């Protein structure tokens, strides 16, 4: 058994809309051994992981997977279920998975399973394969390539591996506060993006985005946070506004603390001036000895040296949550305590309490495990106890004076009991400090009575208050405190998503994307575009290079200036990790032709169409799927398309296909080209109406309608603009100014006329693209003495694809230059040129007019050197920017010294 590939789908993909880990395995001879043929395997697996047998699996009944094991299933399928079960045991529940055989590769399977945290999913996949391997007979064991999955190494020990996984979950999983906010956002359909492993979260896209970490939001004032962090400043501001607060003094050494205590009088509290989470707080101080201890604890937790000595408010400790100036929830916090049984020590009683599954380390669970530290020992020592004392039966022993959940305290919901005076005091206190989300620490004998009568008041204001005491209190009703925070960030009726226009297809994606961006720019919006040449914000290139994958799309969706996202979406990113977004508003499929076949399991154009249809399937219910009615593989996508379908077609009027005719007769939308002079007329059909948009020839990029592929691209772009709500007049204005210039559409039919001959630079990188370009060149051929073309194809294409490229080129150009890039993508040097050459010879072209030149720059230089007045030179580069620069920098004098390129040249 060998691991051959590992990947992570982070968004909707070919197999599912869920994020999934994908592990491709080659079972080798284990293909001959389903589980019912491996002695003891099923028994051993169910003993090791009893829960895995209870999975429903494809039988969709509890225990379905155990039945599959007994009947016989393959080890890849077993690993899928084990990975899911391991994640659930570790505290990161995942339930969905798929295992599918790889077409044309017997014994090779893609194991796919859902995850919540990527690193946890990858580690679970490794442990699953290790467990499966450990249960095999000695003669069948062995896993190749396993080291690529994670860093968990060593001899297999299931218990240790599960402990490793649990620790990984604790390090990477969202805490209760963050998780509650994420869940509420997702419930409202707000996109969620985790920006780091410390729970920095982005909600929404582009200009509508909001960020938060725990309960600190992007709206939380830094000034307010600083005030809340300075407890003395907080009390001064509150006291000045009539809020009841304890009197206190800031000190820096213990003798000052003692002198301050004499002025204030016992009982007292000591705390760090800039502390939080109850760290270093000692309350109920009744003596100078206790004061000295409390001062030392406070100063040990202070970022500076400052310690507050203040009056002690007698009563119960409450946390009041205030959001956006409104009191939301109240919890009474009860200090950590144990109840004696007359037999166990305090230490043993604490250990028993910590077995509660609701308790965890830090803030990971709804309650925190109790730790016996110096503060606990000092506090119980006031009662003459030590951790090894045995309390009497039913004796309640308080372990701390403070009631913070982070030190093991518990919470009782008191939201419905708070007196209106107390609620108003807390609300005003939060607003005076200036926090949008505040935790007000409020001490009083009885929260249902006004502190104006009972005494007590506000002792602290906290930025970034934890929500878990309200979400899941130890006693009382849970409160949905995440809802008002998300509602504050995204009030009812506000937007969280920028419109996403996703474009897929074999050819035309880049041009359609640039046309759509160009049109929408005319509406005044800031548009983010991803394309084969880079990432653009409006007309500014912010990241150069092929940007058609999910990483580039995420750049756009995270940019705070973007109002509309136009995302070219290629097959590579879809196969590698899926989409970067959960749903598109408009999805466009231009066409599907043979390209990149034989890679990543894509063997046929039908396979390729299925991959690209992921974009169309992702369109939301109220969106639009724009499909090419002239392409049968695109037509088939309509069965699974999301939203409303808009067809586009070069065949309008009397030539309209029955498919489109039926669609428009039923009131559907279509954008078609109707025959006529100057490229014909672009027409919109919608709700039974026919409306002329513009003449195709009025779009400069169509070369007066001669570049039919750009007419088709314009139809798709215009359909997208209409779906986006752009007025027709704006569309016409924008398209009459869209040219195939390098500045507007780099690498797409760019024309250069400054050297005495015409040069066209076009990114025709596959057979269909070159054939479409050939139609334009043939239409222009009568105007030129010779046509000279540089042609190549990536080395990872099939032999037949390379030969076909050569055959097509032979039918277009008088002089052929076949090039080969330095990166041959796995092929021996010279093989790409050889196969292109063979294809040209098969098409009947003589070798006298075929030139083989290694290197893109060298082949472009040779073509330019061959040029004479009246010639047309066509360059089809991989590096569009470099080729355009080379054309611009060419010195025309060179063409007088060289009549033709050598047969073989090196870069």
UniProtKB/TrEMBL annotation:
Ranges for domain ATP-grasp: 235-490
Keyword Ribonucleoprotein in record: no
EC main group: ligase
One annotated GO molecular function: ATP binding
The protein's Enzyme Commission number: 6.3.2.29, 6.3.2.30
Keywords noted in UniProt: ATP-binding, Ligase, Nucleotide-binding
Record Gene3D superfamilies: ATP-grasp fold, A domain (3.30.1490.20), ATP-grasp fold, B domain (3.30.470.20), Mur ligase, C-terminal domain (3.90.190.20), Mur-like, catalytic domain (3.40.1190.10)
Keyword Manganese on entry: no
Taxonomy, superkingdom: Bacteria
Reactions that this protein is recorded to catalyse: [L-4-(L-arginin-2-N-yl)aspartate](n)-L-aspartate + L-arginine + ATP = [L-4-(L-arginin-2-N-yl)aspartate](n+1) + ADP + phosphate + H(+); [L-4-(L-arginin-2-N-yl)aspartate](n) + L-aspartate + ATP = [L-4-(L-arginin-2-N-yl)aspartate](n)-L-aspartate + ADP + phosphate + H(+)
NCBIfam families reported in the protein's UniProt record: cya_phycin_syn, PRK14016.1
Subunit organization: Homodimer.
PANTHER family, per database record: CYANOPHYCIN SYNTHETASE, MUR LIGASE FAMILY MEMBER
Family to which the UniProt record says this protein belongs: In the C-terminal section; belongs to the MurCDEF family.
Its job: Catalyzes the ATP-dependent polymerization of arginine and aspartate to multi-L-arginyl-poly-L-aspartic acid (cyanophycin; a water-insoluble reserve polymer).
Protein name in UniProt: Cyanophycin synthetase
Species this protein is from: Allosphingosinicella deserti
């Amino acid at each position: 058994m060998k691991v051959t590939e590992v990947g992570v789908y982070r968004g909707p993909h070919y197999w599912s809309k869920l994020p999934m880990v994908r592990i491709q395995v080659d079972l080798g001879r284990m293909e001959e051994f389903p589980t019912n043929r491996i002695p003891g395997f099923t028994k051993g697996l169910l003993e090791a992981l009893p829960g895995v047998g209870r999975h429903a699996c494809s039988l969709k009944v509890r225990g379905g997977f155990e039945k599959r094991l007994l009947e016989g299933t393959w080890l890849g399928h077993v690993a899928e279920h084990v990975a899911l079960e391991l994640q659930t045991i570790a505290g990161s529940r995942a339930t969905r998975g798929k295992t599918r055989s790889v077409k044309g590769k017997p014994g090779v399977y893609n194991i796919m399973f859902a995850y919540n945290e990527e690193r946890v999913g990858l580690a679970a996949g490794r442990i699953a394969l290790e467990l499966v391997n450990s249960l095999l007979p000695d003669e069948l064991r062995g896993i190749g390539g396993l080291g690529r999955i994670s860093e968990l190494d060593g001899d297999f020990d299931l218990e240790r591996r599960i402990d490793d996984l649990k620790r990984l979950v604790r390090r990477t999983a969202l805490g209760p506060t963050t998780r509650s906010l994420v869940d509420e956002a997702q419930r409202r359909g707000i996109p969620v993006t985790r920006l780091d492993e410390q729970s920095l979260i982005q909600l929404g896209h582009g200009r509508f985005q909001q960020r938060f970490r725990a309960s600190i939001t992007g709206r939380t004032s830094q000034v307010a946070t600083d005030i809340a962090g300075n407890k003395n400043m907080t009390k001064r501001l509150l006291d000045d506004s009539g809020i009841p607060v304890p009197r206190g003094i800031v000190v820096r050494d213990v003798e000052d603390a003692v002198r301050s205590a004499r002025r204030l009088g016992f009982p007292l509290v000591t705390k760090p001036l800039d502390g939080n989470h109850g760290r270093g707080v000692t309350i109920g101080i009744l003596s100078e000895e206790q004061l000295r201890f409390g001062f030392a604890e406070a100063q040990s937790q202070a970022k500076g040296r400052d310690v507050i000595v203040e009056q002690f408010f007698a009563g119960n400790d409450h946390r009041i949550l205030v959001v956006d100036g409104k009191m939301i929830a109240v919890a009474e916090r009860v200090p950590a305590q144990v109840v004696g049984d007359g037999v166990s020590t305090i230490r043993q009683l604490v250990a028993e309490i910590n077995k509660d599954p609701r308790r965890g380390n830090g803030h990971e669970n709804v309650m925190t495990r109790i730790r016996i530290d110096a503060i606990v020992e000092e506090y119980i020592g006031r009662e003459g106890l030590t951790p090894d004392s045995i309390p009497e039966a039913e004796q309640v022993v308080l372990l701390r004076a403070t009631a913070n959940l982070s030190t093991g305290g518990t919470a009782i919901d008191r939201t419905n009991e708070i007196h209106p005076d107390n609620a108003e005091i807390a609300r005003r206190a939060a607003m005076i400090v200036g926090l949008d989300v505040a935790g007000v620490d409020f001490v009083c004998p009885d929260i249902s009575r006004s502190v104006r009568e009972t005494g007590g008041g506000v002792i602290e204001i906290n930025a970034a208050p934890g929500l878990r005491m309200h979400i899941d209190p130890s006693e009382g009703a849970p409160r949905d405190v995440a809802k008002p925070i998300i509602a504050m960030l995204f009030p009812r009726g506000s937007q969280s998503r920028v419109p996403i226009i996703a474009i897929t297809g074999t050819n035309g994606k880049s041009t359609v994307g640039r046309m759509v961006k160009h049109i929408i720019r005319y509406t005044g919006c800031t548009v983010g575009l991803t394309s084969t040449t880079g990432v653009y914000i409006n007309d500014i290139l912010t990241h150069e290079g092929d940007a058609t994958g999910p990483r580039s799309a995420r750049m756009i969706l995270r940019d705070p200036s973007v109002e509309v996202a136009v995302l070219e979406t290629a097959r590579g990113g879809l196969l590698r990790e899926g989409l970067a977004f959960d749903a598109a508003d408009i999805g466009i499929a231009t066409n599907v032709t043979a390209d990149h076949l034989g890679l990543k399991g894509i063997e046929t154009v039908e396979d390729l169409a299925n991959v690209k249809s992921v974009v169309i399937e992702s369109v939301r219910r109220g969106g639009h799927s724009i499909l090419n009615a002239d392409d049968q593989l695109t037509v088939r996508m309509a069965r699974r398309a999301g939203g409303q379908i808009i067809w586009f077609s070069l065949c309008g009027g009397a030539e309209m296909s029955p498919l489109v005719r039926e669609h428009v007769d039923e009131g559907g939308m279509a954008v078609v080209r109707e025959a006529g002079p100057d490229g014909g007329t672009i027409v919109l059909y919608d709700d039974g109406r026919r409306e002329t948009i513009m003449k195709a020839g009025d779009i400069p990029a169509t070369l007066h309608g001669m570049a039919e592929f750009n007419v088709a691209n314009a139809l798709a772009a215009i359909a997208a603009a209409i779906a986006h709500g752009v007025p027709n007049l704006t569309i016409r204005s924008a398209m009459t100014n869209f040219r195939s210039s390098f500045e507007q559409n780099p690498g797409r039919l760019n024309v250069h006329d400054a050297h005495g001959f015409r040069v066209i630079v076009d990114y025709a990188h596959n057979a269909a693209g070159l054939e479409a370009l050939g139609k334009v060149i043939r239409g222009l051929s009568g105007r030129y003495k010779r046509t000279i073309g540089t042609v190549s194809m990536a080395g990872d294409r099939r032999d037949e694809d390379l030969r076909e490229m050569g055959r097509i080129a032979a039918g277009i150009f008088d002089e052929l230059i076949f090039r080969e890039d330095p990166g041959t993508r796995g092929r021996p040097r010279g093989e790409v040129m050889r196969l292109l050459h063979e294809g040209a010879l098969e098409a009947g072209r003589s070798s006298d007019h075929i030139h083989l030149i290694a290197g893109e720059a060298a082949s472009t230089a040779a073509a330019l050197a061959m040029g004479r007045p009246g010639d047309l030179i066509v360059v089809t580069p991989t590096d569009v920017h470099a080729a355009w620069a080379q054309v611009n920098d060419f010195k025309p004098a060179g063409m007088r010294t060289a009549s033709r390129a050598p047969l073989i040249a090196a870069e």
